[in-house]
TrEMBL record:
It holds the Pfam family Pyr_redox_3. InterPro entries: FAD-binding_Monooxygenases, FAD/NAD-bd_sf. The keyword Flavoprotein applies. This is NAD(P)/FAD-dependent oxidoreductase. Keywords: FAD, Flavoprotein, Monooxygenase, NADP, Oxidoreductase. It comes from Pseudonocardia alni subsp. carboxydivorans. It is an enzyme of class 1 (oxidoreductase).
Length: 539
């Protein structure tokens, strides 16, 4: 093989890639990161749309491996904005001297496992790498889904995408703006654009349950309080199903009186953000229980939106609350009380095409100067399947995942030795505080690689049987919930031709952690180690 030689090549310089770089470097591996964008930060580098912020609390959506970092960084708001998160990423990169091993503007195009050397040859648009380990830290939401609306290229005004917002910003003042998409991105963007634009038209295909962020500044007393107990807070998060620290209510929504339930929902609505979904343990397990929460949210929409006809259009029906990832909003529904904001219900009047001057639905054309796509991502697998990845016997990852992603624990893939995915399909990933899940994976992977190194093994791979059993478990857990009852990016239904499979592991961060621990206790059960010409079991 030719090209630069490293122990580990990490693909992606978002949180997962940077944390992998830091940890593997600390463990003595020679590591390099390649990043297709021209700077670090991953999703937080590209998703610069107005209003973009994290809807996991800042204290929890932050790296936990360094107590000094935790103490010195001062978050300004309960939910950090995208620019603040990017400043944090830069701070982390400088503090831990990460940039020297990050190769920007370098896109992985192809990787092939060499069965004779046990190494990966990785071709990029800037040359070739030769790596023992290939760590895919490419993110869950980094490839945009094509909305597939005819005429998109015909629009003569300005076209924007939330995940590709211009770095210099976009001046929307005095403009007629249209937004297609009402997921988390659209829901955050819409109130901000409404304040700036002359007129806003929101094109909604599926109304979304959204819970209020109740965002606000963090004062010094609160900051000191959190920092005094940070280690406990982190441990609580690791031991919670969501990775957010919420203690699930052991009661069923159906075993309490209507008054008691309403009181709890009111309290959660005022305080919990995402935690609303955990108000009762069975909200994602039982349709009748879920209906109580869905009815509550619909009643809130009716309270917030003045015009009953508009409120009715904004009320989600036909899918369980939470089965599509609920946005956490700041004034989304109230935005529709403005005279300069219109809602177009695409279920009533579908888009026919985009024209040079606007969007034409079956009710006629809406004239626009700016058209914003907030139309989402080819989630979980998009970035993993974009490059060609060739494993044992010439099988490609695309072939291996023909019927949906198959992994062992969301980390390893049978037939693709020495390839690892951070927070991949089959792990809690997007169903959790993803930053916590990323850190857990990186630490676990580093331990696995140390284990192999200690035994002189140079090839680590998931056993096909272990992978098959894990896939079965991931599917069975999902089938026991309400998640598969909605079309969503969790199910891959937003991308034409994608297999309809629930991709994350739904058993929660706490349960997943126990599984990882038991795999270690059993000598990395399910991973095969080999090297120096002999096959060895992991233990
Ligand atoms: P999304 O949740 O997939 O929403 C995409 C929206 O576009 C949906 O409303 C979808 O409608 C609509 N859409 C797609 N194609 C369309 C078409 N051809 N015509 C009309 N409408 C169309 O994507 P997202 O809002 O970018 O959010 C993705 C994820 O990113 C979030 O769930 C979250 O995990 C993450 N995110 C996080 C934050 C945060 O932490 N604050 C912020 C933004 C995003 P249908 O529902 O009918 O398909």
């Amino acid at each position: 093989m030719t090209g630069r030689v490293v122990d580990a090549l990490v693909v992606g310089a978002g949180f997962a890639g940077l944390r992998s770089l830091h940890t593997l470097r600390e463990r003595g591996y020679d590591v390099a990161v390649i990043e297709a964008n021209d700077d670090i930060g991953g999703v937080w580098y590209v998703n610069r749309y107005p209003g973009a912020r994290c809807d996991v609390e800042s204290y929890d959506y932050s790296l936990s491996f360094s107590p000094e970092l935790e103490q010195e960084w001062r978050w300004s708001e309960r939910y950090a904005t995208q620019p603040e998160i990017l400043r944090y990423v830069e701070h982390v990169a400088q503090r831990f001297d990460l940039r020297r091993d990050v190769h920007l503007s370098t896109r992985m195009e192809r990787a092939e496992f060499d069965e004779t050397t046990g190494r990966w040859r990785v071709d990029t648009d800037r040359g070739t790498w030769d790596a023992r380990y290939l760590v895919m830290a490419t993110g869950q939401l980094s490839v945009r889904a094509a909305p597939g609306i005819p005429g998109a290229d015909d629009f003569a005004g300005t076209t924007l995408h939330t995940a590709d917002w211009p770095h210099e910003g976009a001046d929307l003042s005095g403009k007629r703006v249209g937004v297609i998409g009402t997921g988390s991105s659209g829901t955050q963007l819409i109130p901000v654009v409404a304040r700036e634009a002359a007129h806003l038209t929101v094109f909604q295909r599926t109304p979304n349950f959204s819970v209020p962020a109740n965002n606000g500044p963090i004062d010094d007393a609160r900051d000191a309080e959190v920092k005094a107990g940070y280690a406990d807070r982190r441990e609580r998060a690791r031991r919670s199903p969501s990775g957010l620290g919420f203690v699930p209510n052991k009661q069923s929504a159906l075993e309490v009186s209507d008054d008691e339930r309403r009181a709890l929902y009111e309290e959660q609505w005022r305080t919990a953000g995402f935690g609303f979904l955990l108000a009762y343990y069975d909200l994602m397990l039982d349709q009748e229980a879920n209906d109580t929460a869905a009815d509550f949210v619909r009643a809130k929409i009716a309270e917030k939106v003045d015009d009953p006809a508009t409120a009715a259009k904004l009320m989600p029906r036909g899918h369980p609350f939470g089965a599509k990832r609920p946005p956490v909003d700041s004034g989304y529904f109230e935005t529709f009380n403005r005279d300069d904001v219109d809602l177009v219900d695409l279920r009533e009047t579908p888009i026919e095409r985009i024209t040079p001057t606007g969007v034409r639905t079956t009710a006629g054309e809406v004239g626009l100067d700016v058209l914003v796509f907030a139309t989402g991502f080819d989630a979980m697998t998009g970035a993993l399947l974009r490059p060609e990845i060739v494993g044992r016997g010439g099988e490609t990852l695309r072939e291996h995942w023909d019927a949906g992603p198959r992994t062992y624990l969301g980390v390893g893939v049978a037939g693709f030795p020495n390839l690892f995915v951070i927070a991949g399909p089959g792990s809690p990933s997007l169903l959790s505080n993803v930053l916590l899940s990323i850190e857990a994976h990186v630490d676990w992977l580093a331990d696995l690689l140390d284990h192999a190194r200690d035994r002189g093994a140079t090839v680590v791979e998931a056993d096909p049987g272990a992978e098959a059993r894990w896939v079965e478990q991931v599917n069975a857990r999902a089938e026991a919930t309400l998640y598969p009852r909605a079309d969503s990016y969790y199910m891959g239904t937003n991308v034409p031709g994608k297999p309809r499979v629930f991709t994350p592991y739904v058993g929660g961060v706490r349960g997943y952690r126990r599984i990882l621990e038991s795999v270690v206790a059993d000598g990395y059960d399910g991973f095969l180690l080999s090297g120096k010409g002999r096959d060895v079991r992991a233990s």
